[in-house]
Amino acid sequence: MGKRSSKWITGVCFAALSVSLAGCGDDNSEESGGGDSGELSGEVTLWTASLAGEPFDTYFADLEAEFEEMHPDLDVKIEDIPQNEMEQKVLTSLTGDDVPDVVNLNPHYMSNIAAQGGLLGLNDLVSDETKSSYVEGPFNSGMYEDELYALPWYLTTTVSWYNSEHFDEAGVSELPTDTQGIYDTAKAVTEATGKPSYYPVINDGNTVMEKMVSLADGEPIVENGKAVFEDNEAIVEFFELTQKMYEEGLIPQETAEGSLATGQELYMAGNTSFLEGGVTFLGPIESGSPDVYEASKAGQPLESNEAPVNVAVMNFAIPAKTQNEDAAVALAEFLTNAENQLEFAKTAGTVLPATTESLEDDYFQNPGDSPKALGMLQASESLSRAEVLIPPTENSSDLRESTKNIFVQNLQGSLTPEEAVKQLAEEWNRAFEDSGEEVTF
Amino acid sequence: MKSKKRSQLIWLYALLLFITVITVGPFFITLLISLKSANEGIYTVLFPTDPTLANFIDSFAKADFGLYFLNTVIVTGIAIPLNLIFCSLAAYPLARMDFRGRSVVLALIISTMMVPFQLYMAPLFQLAGELGLRNSHIGLVVMQVSTAFGIYLMRQAFLRIPKELEESAYLDGASKFKVWYLVAIPLVKPTLVTLAIFTFMGTWGDYLWPLLNSTESSMYTLSIGLAQLSQNFDGANLKLISAASILTTIPTLLIFIWLQKYFISGATDGAVKG
């Protein structure tokens, strides 16, 4: 027994040492650069966000092959990272030498990493012709403090989704275009189905902030770092009526948690009937509840047809410590050119491209008649009034947190709507005073 | 008197049944969801009307689960023996040898349990890179090899061994190392099994460090595969996630059931003597 133990321990120690030494011998640092001839060479690494599996594997394999054919001395590596951890992973990688060359970020992650000096400024590295090829709103989402840090890739805008069977049951034929309309619709649908019908998505407070900007319909809600929405009738009405709907059971109690995922679960279980969300909202519904998916229809966001709507952008940025700057810029431009964006939008089936040329394609006028395609059609119709409604700010987490807390307290009746709006304005003013930012949105 | 006993028994069984439903229920529902076919709704009926294993096959294909499973098995296979060896080696002197600063060393080791991972992940990332441990199986287990918890657990177990047994071995001429592996180690077997199970669970489900240390997806583990499924571009497919969760959990369950006898006796070791 003793001898056996001894051999076992020695064996494990030897194995561990061997693997460690093998690891030490693994040299990942590869020379890269533009080369003497100006031709791109070396290695360029791209990190995508939550795009693993088909159909994206094939899409990226084709792109990789095409780009490597254009630049025979270049080796492209593509890895996929779960979206929620992308910011943390990029920031951690910047502390070492294993830095990717191109990363897929949302504007929030981008501005945070750029604020810490982690991204390469692209103002002088990208040509004016390329810059002008993108749709203006999404392009501007790549700006931070007058410097371009990212090129826009794909977009989704807010649309509304509803269960047409529930609406038919209630005899409702049109989607509401203001908060009073939402109340009337929710009341009629709830009376017909016996279940709460309207789910206002809160997430971490960002969607409420975006809703407030949409409701203000062009009027700023923050002017030079000061909240100016206290007297905005549409916003006060939104707080009043959401509280009333919650009290009357037209809004489900789960709204206090407020995530889109909860909304999706309620919607697919038939426990809520309409809400606003992105074009990709129906993904889990299609697999989780095929009947509800078939009954789903899309419409414009639940406010006036001229009100600005939010656009969610995914973009490509280049970490400041890239070892292959020229190749990284070339790859980011290649990925976001009109042709490749159009192909990506067709592959994904639920997103819009960010270049004006690809948006003119017939595909976006006639995407088909599936519920998802109807959503994309609505999104492309509202793109002309779509913009990033909340600009990235240093205090954005404070703004979002206070918005969520106060909105939920308002829903639950702990505050009167007037108190809630007033308190929210005070919290925002405090956050802007602390950060010293003088933004307007 | 008899009827009182019977009523107590009924209440006891009712309570046990309730606890069983609470603990096993979610796992059972996850299993049912994973067996539902593509055309079936998750919430329409509890039991699948047309049970299928397609979700298990699809989840394997969707997130390269075969490769991730292999990686997870390899890193777990490396982490368990290394953690057992290093923790036992570190714990034995803390329990049995008198040297200056022993209590300080122990306090320092235990205090590392209070430091959140986020605080040292960047230096650890750099260090792993410098040591050439990036994208290697051994690099994925640095968090699980020689844990403070393991050292403390083993120390408590060594403290319970009667000193006389070791002293008689010394009288027979055994060295300190021989006493450690011939006398002490066999006597703390239940605690070793407990630590093995804890290490298994920690390594099997570890997420953030394997993700940070892997810049190549070929080194991903099962937990990262699960995250890829749940954070999918097109939204989470609950049937696939349920199937993948079941596949991920089964090995943990099997190991626990196999070793539960040792686990329970070992887990209480720390509580007996401080």
TrEMBL record, chain A:
<protein>
    <submittedName>
        <fullName>Extracellular solute-binding protein, family 1</fullName>
    </submittedName>
</protein>
<dbReference type="InterPro" id="IPR006059">
    <property type="entry name" value="SBP"/>
</dbReference>
<feature type="signal peptide">
    <location>
        <begin position="1"/>
        <end position="22"/>
    </location>
</feature>
<dbReference type="Pfam" id="PF13416">
    <property type="entry name" value="SBP_bac_8"/>
</dbReference>
<keyword id="KW-0732">Signal</keyword>
<dbReference type="InterPro" id="IPR050490">
    <property type="entry name" value="Bact_solute-bd_prot1"/>
</dbReference>
TrEMBL record, chain B:
<dbReference type="Pfam" id="PF00528">
    <property type="entry name" value="BPD_transp_1"/>
</dbReference>
<dbReference type="InterPro" id="IPR000515">
    <property type="entry name" value="MetI-like"/>
</dbReference>
<dbReference type="InterPro" id="IPR035906">
    <property type="entry name" value="MetI-like_sf"/>
</dbReference>
<feature type="transmembrane region" description="Helical">
    <location>
        <begin position="68"/>
        <end position="92"/>
    </location>
</feature>
<feature type="transmembrane region" description="Helical">
    <location>
        <begin position="137"/>
        <end position="158"/>
    </location>
</feature>
<dbReference type="GO" id="GO:0005886">
    <property type="term" value="C:plasma membrane"/>
</dbReference>
<keyword id="KW-1003">Cell membrane</keyword>
<feature type="transmembrane region" description="Helical">
    <location>
        <begin position="179"/>
        <end position="204"/>
    </location>
</feature>
<feature type="domain" description="ABC transmembrane type-1">
    <location>
        <begin position="69"/>
        <end position="259"/>
    </location>
</feature>
<protein>
    <submittedName>
        <fullName>Lactose ABC transporter permease</fullName>
    </submittedName>
</protein>
<comment type="similarity">
    <text>Belongs to the binding-protein-dependent transport system permease family.</text>
</comment>
<keyword id="KW-0813">Transport</keyword>
<feature type="transmembrane region" description="Helical">
    <location>
        <begin position="104"/>
        <end position="125"/>
    </location>
</feature>
<dbReference type="GO" id="GO:0055085">
    <property type="term" value="P:transmembrane transport"/>
</dbReference>
<feature type="transmembrane region" description="Helical">
    <location>
        <begin position="12"/>
        <end position="35"/>
    </location>
</feature>
<feature type="transmembrane region" description="Helical">
    <location>
        <begin position="240"/>
        <end position="259"/>
    </location>
</feature>
<keyword id="KW-1133">Transmembrane helix</keyword>
<keyword id="KW-0472">Membrane</keyword>
<keyword id="KW-0812">Transmembrane</keyword>
